[in-house]
Design a protein that fits this description.
336 residues, mainly alpha, 17 helices
């Protein structure tokens, strides 16, 4: 899939992968693409640890960053957020964190990411394209915002109807007696997950700090696009870079392919063209971002996955609910 994407970017942008093309890249600026990306990865791990701590689960900082990196590695080579499943399984095995609480921490990450991306996308659109935002971008923002509002509404409303869901005559009639205990266990799991998320709202100081970290994480993403463009001598307003990066990230909210290959790339090229960037330059800058964000990250994160003993995630992700073994080298390496 990566090879297909590279070929697609080269052919679509009429790029010649030659010394002439490479000489166009200013390596001092391009190096900042790497710095921005890896700073965002560290910030993600730091934020995840803080979320878990606020929920009552203290995890070693190095462990959290390394496990998140291993999760990103798994998601980069497997579709459908397989890395998230692996993170849940590893936390269960190494720190005895209940599955519902691990899922709650990751769901919180997603909600905060969407909130930060939406906010920055709207700011970028208002700043860069006043009155000229493409209809498809508006539709994307509205749909994602609607899902976010729906999720928040669910967090507020569902706990208030817990007794109805558990003991209501309606559910007693439609749920067969044979699976009533299973139904109750599913409710226990769901409400445990929701309670884990709601705990953050009960700690406004921690929540504000975590929200701030989320904005920093996605600001690094915008910097990647900005530095990639600068590295090939293309200068567009920072607002245009912010808008392009955030909408491209929104397009990958539901990754269909490993690493959201193709989804991010096509959106970024289309949006850069709105700001007068040629197809060739847009394709080359997208390729440079992908080099840092995915193709060099896979060997780096794969090495981290191996060193910290997280190669188990590739097996655990296929059966996350299997009984886990005793803690092995993972936590000892991370905590040493």
């Amino acid at each position: 899939m990566s090879i297909v994407t590279i070929i697609g970017l080269i052919r679509f942008g009429n790029l010649e992968f030659s010394l002439t093309t490479l000489s166009k890249v200013k390596w001092s600026w391009f190096s900042l693409v790497f710095v921005s990306f890896y700073m965002s990865v560290i910030a993600r791990g730091w934020r995840w640890r803080r979320i878990l701590k606020t929920m009552g689960w203290t995890v070693n900082t190095v462990y959290a960053i390394a496990l998140l990196t291993a999760g990103l590695f798994t998601s980069a080579i497997l579709p459908a957020r397989a890395g998230d499943v692996a993170r849940v399984a590893m936390l269960k095995q190494d720190y005895k964190v209940p599955i519902s609480q691990s899922i709650a921490s990751i769901a919180t990450e997603r909600a905060l990411d969407v909130f930060a991306i939406l906010s920055m996308a709207i700011i970028g659109a208002w700043w860069a394209l006043p009155g000229r935002v493409p209809a498809y971008v508006v539709q994307l923002v509205v749909v994602v915002a609607g899902l976010l509002v729906f999720g928040i509404f669910g967090l507020v409303v569902i706990p208030s109807i817990e007794n109805f869901l558990r003991e209501g005559l309606f559910f007693r009639r439609i749920v067969p007696l044979k699976i009533w205990s299973l139904y109750q266990k599913l409710l226990d799991f769901g409400f445990s997950l929701i309670q884990g998320i709601r705990i953050l709202g009960q700690n406004p100081g921690a929540l504000l700090f975590i929200i701030g970290e989320s904005f920093v994480i996605w600001f690094y993403d915008a910097l990647m696009v900005y530095f990639a463009l600068l590295s090939i001598g293309v200068l567009i307003p920072p607002s245009a870079t912010l808008f392009t990066a955030m909408i491209s990230d929104l397009a990958t909210a539901v990754p269909i392919t490993p690493g959201a290959l193709g989804q991010f790339d096509a959106t970024m090229i289309a949006l850069l063209s709105l700001f007068g960037v040629t197809t060739a330059d847009a394709s080359l800058s997208t390729l440079l971002v992908r080099i840092a964000q995915l193709w060099t990250f896979i060997p780096v994160s794969g090495l981290i996955t191996y060193i910290f003993g997280f190669s188990r995630v590739l097996n655990l992700s296929s059966n996350p609910l299997a009984s886990t073994a005793t803690t092995t080298q993972t936590s000892s390496i991370a905590e040493s």
